[in-house]
Amino acid sequence: MARTRKRELDESSLDMTPMIDCVFQLMIFFIVTINITEVKDKDVRLELGPSGPEVESGRDADVSALVVDVNKSGRLSVNNLDITTDQLRSRVRSRLKRQGNTFQIWVRGDARAQHYMIRKVMDACTLEGVGKVSFVAVKTARTKETKEFLKTRDAARRKRTR
Prior knowledge:
The chain is built from 5 helices and 5 strands; from the N terminus they run ααβββαβαβα. The protein is an alpha/beta fold. The chain has 2 domains: 2-33; 66-161, Nucleotidyltransferase, domain 5, CATH 3.30.420.270. It has a 5-stranded mixed β-sheet. β4, α4 (115-127) and β5 (133-135) form a beta-alpha-beta unit. α3 (85-99) crosses α4 (115-127). It is extended and about 90 Å long. The N and C termini lie far apart (105 Å).
């Protein structure tokens, strides 16, 4: 009688192998299709650059690019992590050791930032031996805030030149 009870219990158990296989296939699917982009500082309002080359992040972008954000107050950040110029030099130095001089440095400078704030990034890169630094701009203003900022800034510039 003990054997029949054990046999009844075995027949009612579920095989979890197909369910685990499905879960792993779903995980692989979502990992492969996820759009991975670098984190950018949302407070940075980029300058207009209508005549520059157009590069779409994620498609044509160089994966080895180090993107440095400089906001209007001069704060430096990489992937939304605040850094100092010494930390930036350290990152550039380590990239040079790993990849040689093949990686790019992209500076996302706020249009309201002073030139000396952007120059800190340029100087840090030059001191580490990187001479090519690219600046990121937008072709057209997309957000309402950026359009209004550019409109008032251009009006103020026209007023000063008169």
